Amino acid sequence: MTRLLLGSASPARLATLRSLGIDPLVRVSGVDEDAVLASARERFGALDPADAVLVLAQAKAEWVSRSLGADDVAPPADAASSADAADPDDTDGDLVVLGCDSMLEINGDIHGKPADAAQATQRWRAMRGRSGVLHTGHWLVDERDAAHGGTGGTLGATSSTVVHFADLSDAEIDAYVATGEPLRVAGAFTIDGRGGAFVTGIEGDHHGVVGVSLPLLRELLGQIGLTVPDLWPVVD
């Protein structure tokens, strides 16, 4: 069975993949996101939000890919996964790596995770009653060996979904920020948690807003000769 190695610490991404019937391994990358974006801007100029998240997703997937079996590229100290005790280095050459990154584009600006509660509050007061676009970059690296049909492929794409926000009161914003949830997610909101009550509608794939677009993942897997059921555990 081909295993998926998720290069992300996001519990929401892990839960979404598990809802699809996939039980991924997890290894969090040691990518310096600011440095990656600065390098990309130096090479390519200003980046659209959809391109920025794709650049970061690629960097994370390729960092995790390089870490496999490498003594000089060890996972960060906090990257141990409680999701799966198996070692990605022991998957018998049948492994695919997935990196993801998300940002919210609103009012012409892009936002990742807020730095603190004050910034989360400021963002919500700016975006309440408005609409934004949640971009999630996805990048796959085919680490399968030839015996398992490996292509050596490295490819990706971005999922972009329009999100409409409710016109929250200051009290609602303060209460939501006090839960700590907005501090852990790109754009300072969720649709699969407490923040779901504050999103009035979406246009596009809601999985992409949670953190990983399942239809887009299916398309990317197809380009390296895999189907979603290929990643389901074998039932004896």
Structure description:
With 236 residues, the chain is of the alpha/beta class. It has one domain (3-230): Alpha-Beta Complex (Maf protein), CATH 3.90.950.10. Helix content is 32%, strand content 21%. It contains seven helices and seven strands. Strands 1, 2, 3, 4, 5, 6 and 7 form a seven-stranded mixed β-sheet that branches. α1 (11-19) links the parallel β1 (3-6) and β2 (25-26). α4 runs antiparallel to α5.
Task: Give the SSE map.
Layout: E1 3-6, H1 11-19, E2 25-26, H2 33-44, H3 49-67, E3 95-106, E4 109-111, H4 117-127, E5 131-142, E6 154-165, H5 170-178, E7 199-203, H6 206-210, H7 214-223
Parallel strand pairs: 1-2, 1-3
Antiparallel strand pairs: 3-4, 3-5, 5-6, 6-7
Entry keywords:
alpha/beta, single chain, seven-stranded mixed sheet, 7 helices, 236 residues, Maf protein
Total number of helices: 7
* Beta content: 15-25%
Rough outline: globular
**Which CATH C-level class is it?**
Alpha Beta
- What is the CATH topology classification name? Maf protein
Mean pLDDT: 91
Helix content: 25-40%
Low-confidence stretches: 72-85
Strands, count:
7
The N- to C-terminal Cα distance equals 12 Å
Overall number of structural domains: 1
Based on CA atoms alone, the radius of gyration comes out at 18 Å
Order of secondary-structure elements: EHEHHEEHEEHEHH
- Report the structural category: alpha/beta
Describe the main β-sheet briefly: 7 strands, mixed
CATH architecture, by name, is: Alpha-Beta Complex
